[in-house]
Amino acid sequence: MAQPATVTELNPEQRPFYHELLRQMLLIRVFEERAGEAYAQGKIGGFCHLYIGQEAVAVGAIAALRPDDYIFASYREHAHALARGTSARAVMAELFGKVTGCSRGKGGSMHLFDVERGFMGGHAIVGSHIPLAAGAAFACKYLGTDRISVCFFGEAAANIGAFHETLNMAALWKLPAVFICENNRYGMGTALERAAAVYDIAQRACAYDMASEVVDGMDVLAVYEATRRAAQRAREESRPTLIEARTYRYMGHSMADPIHGHYRTKEELEEQKKRDPIQGLKRRLVEEGLLDDEEYAEMERRVNQEVEDALRFADESPDPDLSELYTDVYKE
Amino acid sequence: MPVLTYRDALNQALREEMQRDPNVFLMGEEVGVYQGAYKVSRGLLQEFGEHRVVDTPIAELGFAGIGVGAAMAGLRPVIEFMTWNFALLAIDEVVNSAAKMLYMSGGQIPIPIVFRGPGGAALQLAAQHSQAFEAWYAHVPGLKVVAPSTPYDAKGLLKSAIRDDNPVVFLEGEMLYNVRGEVPEEEYLIPLGVADIKRPGDDVTVICHSKTVAVALKAAEELAGEGISAEVIDLRTIRPLDTDTILKSVMKTNRCVIVEEGWPFCGVGAQVAYEIQRGAFDYLDAPIERVTGADVPMPYNKHLERAAKPAVSQVIEAAKRAAYAD
């Protein structure tokens, strides 16, 4: 099996950047924890898929992109919107179904959109957004821009036809795309080993003569570096890349599902938590003298405040007016 | 006025819209080098290059989705399905992505895309290649559904479909590609959502679209010989449905026959019949009649196949029943 790349040396000059990565991961962690509570209180409806444990992937990858690049994600995408800079208020309000949400309360947890930031959604049919991302990459190339398109999806989506059809065309047409497989080991309750004949997902790129890379998805800097390389390949050479980020989901598939039980053990979960992406970066920064306790405490304080504010904002925001039921079906 | 085939009228529409707007491109199987499986895209690769006339692998789901993604990023794709039978593989992207994107995004992302290709039965192509899917797509809010019957309509409607900011499912008649008709040289558009009275009449309204327009017109001619004046309305667009034109006609004739090639259950005619009873209940002098394809998978045998398709004789019988003239 291919071994994930890691980043060996930190650069003290990058201290603010490392802090920003840590802050974003922390924001996502706290946001998701509080969203889980709000779901339990009935303030969030439907399905709600939390990202806890996987923070390094969205944060590291999106940090390596330009603000005008396109991002497509699955239904587990609160983190990607937050990492892209959509406000915690707009994301939380969308989860609450409020008109102040980033999709005006019409999309919900699985359909966050923020076109101004190139955040092209939350898509909830497994794998269906992989061709969409390639289509945006096609448009980038067609229009002669040097923008690129990045797609996040789970490892279970790599077994779907849309994945294979898209990788083939993306490689054939040399599209400026980066496909980031967030391998969290389980498609709902089915372990990758029980669903795929080849479970080294990155290996599948060979079939399409596509560049690929395996990266430790719990190491935000490794994800950042891998995405930076892939983005450069897309932007400068117009060639796609498949990145497999090995990560782990701490929560159940959705809020409606058990955290462990039939498909994985509590022991496995506890073992995986030792790789925690937030604690990992924090430890490393402290060890190298790039972060002190006071700075971290301040970061936590600000993040808690931001999420608290988002919850209050979402709670106090109005529902969409009933007249909105029939708007946005067709573009006039 | 020049006489063109339906195929060439569509070709003109594509060419003119591609000339007009550099963001319009054509993508699909065999559209380029091969010049189109049905030659609708003949000459376009030579004129616009492979940048804008894109041959795909056989991967309907993938290239339909790539089209939707390109539309999300500002292009105006025309996605050709070699036939609508194969588009079933892509229906997730048509229904789940294209039709819902504007709504799910709270109005942020329009999808200006045309999915087009031949539909309906040809000759002895059997069950998997002989299907009319108008009703399937017309069921979905967010989609517009167009099915033209003449070269003139095909050109004007395709141009409007390409300029529309919504996803349009454009069903061409596989058996209509060689049909000839007058097409003016000067530019024209036909708005989506407007039906056309193909033959005026007073005694019974016959509502049809696509291939069944020819069936209805032939029936109307024979009915005229028997003293029954049929008004033939070509829907042209299934969604949005031109209810006004339908109701106006039925209020005049008080009788109605709805003809379609697709299956009867939950078909286009079922919706049209509902609209008529809702909007013109007091004007009806007879139950609404329907003539549809047989409620079976299409058989291969040519006698069986003929029996499965809406026939002129069936329309005549239905019109007479409606007129209490049988």
Quick tags:
heterodimer; A: 332 residues; alpha/beta; Rossmann fold; six-stranded parallel sheet; two-stranded antiparallel ribbon; 11 helices; 8 strands; 42% helix; B: 326 residues; 2 domains; seven-stranded mixed sheet; five-stranded mixed sheet; 12 helices; globular
Biggest sheet: strand arrangement of chain B: 3-2-4-5-7-6-12
For the record, the CATH architecture of the largest domain in chain B stands as 3-Layer(aba) Sandwich
Low-confidence stretches of chain A: none
* Strand-residue proportion of chain A: 5-15%
CATH class identity of the largest domain in chain B: Alpha Beta
Q: How many independent structural domains of chain B? A: 2
Name the largest protein-protein interface in this structure: A-B, 48 and 43 residues
CATH class of chain A: Alpha Beta
SSE pattern of chain B, N- to C-terminal? EHEHEHEHHEHEHEEEEHEEHEHEHH
> What is the count of β-strands of chain B?
14
* Radius of gyration of chain A, taken over Cα atoms and rounded to an integer in Å: 19 Å
So, the CATH homologous superfamily of chain A? Answer: Thiamin diphosphate (ThDP)-binding fold, Pyr/PP domains
Shape of chain A: globular
Query: Count of DSSP helices of chain A?
Result: 11
Overall residue-averaged pLDDT value of chain B: 98
Q: What is the H/E order of chain A?
A: HHEHHEHEHEEEHEHEHHH
CATH fold descriptor of the largest domain in chain B:
Rossmann fold
The biggest sheet of chain B, with number of strands, parallel, antiparallel or mixed sense and barrel status, is:
7 strands, mixed
Please indicate the percent range of residues of chain B in DSSP E strands (runs of 2 or more): 15-25%
Could you describe the 3D structure shown?
The complex is a heterodimer of chains A (332) and B (326). Chain A has one domain (14-305): 3-Layer(aba) Sandwich (Rossmann fold). In chain A, 42% of the residues lie in helices and 11% in strands. Chain A has helices at residues 15-40, 55-63, 78-84, 88-95, 129-142, 161-172, 192-195, 220-237, 266-273, 277-287, 293-316, and strands spanning 70-73, 119-122, 149-154, 177-183, 186-187, 190-191, 211-216, 241-246. In chain A, a hairpin with a 2-residue loop joins strand 5 (186-187) and strand 6. Chain B has 326 residues and is an alpha/beta fold. Chain B folds into two domains: 3-182, Rossmann fold, CATH 3.40.50.970; 196-322, Rossmann fold, CATH 3.40.50.920. In chain B, the strands form three sheets. In chain B, strands 3-2-4-5-7-6-12 form a seven-stranded mixed sheet, with helices on both faces. The chains are: A alpha/beta (332), B alpha/beta (326). Chains A and B meet through strand 2, helix 5 and helix 6 of A and helix 3, helix 4 and helix 5 of B.
